Each structure stands twice: as structure tokens, then as C-alpha cells.
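One such given next:
>
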Amino acid sequence: MIQDILDEIRRGTTTVRGLSKKLKVEKSALEGMLRYMLRKGMIRELHPECRPKGCRGCPYKGKCDQMPVVGYELADDS
């Protein structure tokens, strides 16, 4: 299953919802596998891009690491 997830991310499916639908796996099971893959350094989290004006007015100002995850991408060597 992990290889299937990596293959699907390689094809461009990056969200939990999209991966769940394509792989026909419950989101809760998939989230556990994604956490495992994150710990092993196989994938990285994608976060929203910063605003063009920078941190001014951003609710995550000074807390960029707390921005919500919007998807996943392959780590360099996966």
C-alpha cells in the first residue's frame, strides 16, 4: 500500500481526500499510513503558500509551522 501511495503522489494526487478516493482506502487508515511515511522521511507536508504581502495580516504570523497541511509531496529520495 505504501508503494501505491507513493505512486499516486508521483502522478499528482496530493490530498488525503484525493488519495483516499483513488486508492479506495478510508481516510482514517490513510492518515495513519501518511504519518508513518512522514516519520520515515518518505514524504513531506505541503502548506499553503505565504501571502504576497508577507506576514502582515496573516493569522499564522510568527507561527508558520502551525499552518494547516493541504497535501503531500515526495521527499527528495522517494
